[in-house]
Design goal:
This protein is mostly helical. Helix content is about 70%, strand content about 0%. Helix 2 crosses helix 3 and helix 5 crosses helix 7.
């Protein structure tokens, strides 16, 4: 009788639940929840990463440097001088970004895994397959979402620019988009896309690869079940590895995207992501590449936890197979 009822449920289950677009909506929803909850840490990380980089004063035409500080000092300074609400400055394009980025990377990875790479019979996936899928899905998703990331980074740095006496570059998400488009055209919307894509590939190598591999290894070699506890443990592993691999590329990406440009849309501080890397190491040391590692990790940990648990529970609630 139980078997009959189980087969009946399968027969009546809507076919759209396993579709590409349905999974896209679920992953985007989970990402929007995680992004909104952990956004203050992302803003603090961005402010920390641009400390110490070269500035060009449009009036004095000389290079200036921002006095560096730690994560806690940076957060306290933001709250003191700009207000608590400023911690969510740029959250709108950040959510827009994840509607494109996470929706794409998650569905791309699962599509590649199921149709090209394939799992083993025991539910695990070979490590090299997970690496290839994570790199490909992350790079493709970030390329599509690069314009929204550019807007987010510029809005996140507006508060400190105003405190330094600079005139505001953008007033809103829409203003930022139109301004970038007017100054650099369609190509300008993808300024900094190379380090952006490089970072996303590394982050997803850590995130998707680690989560997928660790989750199925936990299920295979322990007595744990496919539930929130297992999802939380796997997300903890993925957050740490993603932060370790992605922080240097994240520093370079932030600096390239935040730099001022000339009338042709060319950067005034760095010629390329490689130039930015070399200048950062030369003038600030190798450790500068890990500026913001603590806020990145402390953000990725709750972000991964919130996202993966929410996503898996949404899939379960809607009748979608476990990731």
């Amino acid at each position: 009788m139980a078997a009959v009822m189980k087969n009946t449920r399968r027969a009546t289950q809507p076919t759209y639940t396993e579709s590409f677009w349905f999974k896209y909506v679920l992953s985007s929803t989970a990402a929007a929840c995680a992004e909104t909850a952990t956004y203050p840490l992302d803003l603090t990380k961005t402010r920390l990463q641009i400390q110490g980089e070269k500035r060009i004063d449009s009036h004095l035409l000389k290079k200036q440097y921002v006095t560096p500080g730690g994560m806690l000092r940076t957060a306290v300074s933001i709250a003191k001088h700009e207000g608590i609400a400023s911690f969510w400055m740029g959250v709108t394009p950040a959510v827009y970004r994840h509607l494109v980025y996470t929706g794409s990377r998650m569905t791309f990875y699962e599509f590649i895994r199921e149709h090209f790479l394939h799992k083993n019979q025991d539910g695990t996936i070979d490590f090299w397959k997970a690496v290839l899928g994570g790199l490909t899905a992350g790079a493709a998703g970030q390329f599509l979402a690069s314009p929204t990331d550019l807007v987010k980074v510029q809005m996140q740095t507006e508060g400190i620019r105003r405190l330094q006496g600079y005139s505001p570059r953008v007033q809103s998400t829409w203003h930022a988009f139109t301004k970038i488009l007017a100054e650099g055209g369609i190509r300008g919307l993808w300024k900094g896309w190379v380090p952006n894509v490089q970072r996303a590939a590394l982050v997803n190598l850590g995130d998707l690869t680690t989560y997928d591999s660790s989750k199925h290894l936990i299920l295979k070699y322990t007595t744990f079940h496919d539930n929130a506890l297992t999802h939380a443990l796997a997300s903890g592993c993925s957050g740490l590895i993603a932060a370790t691999l992605g922080t240097p590329a994240d520093v370079i990406k932030t600096r390239v995207m935040n730099q001022p440009t000339d009338q042709n849309g060319r950067g005034l501080l760095y010629k390329s992501s490689i130039d930015c890397l070399l200048q950062t190491v030369k003038y600030e040391g190798f450790g500068a590449l890990y500026k913001g590692f603590i806020p990145i990790w402390t953000r990725m940990a709750p972000w991964s936890l919130t996202f993966w648990v929410t996503y898996e529970e949404l899939r379960k609630f809607c009748g979608v197979s476990s990731f």
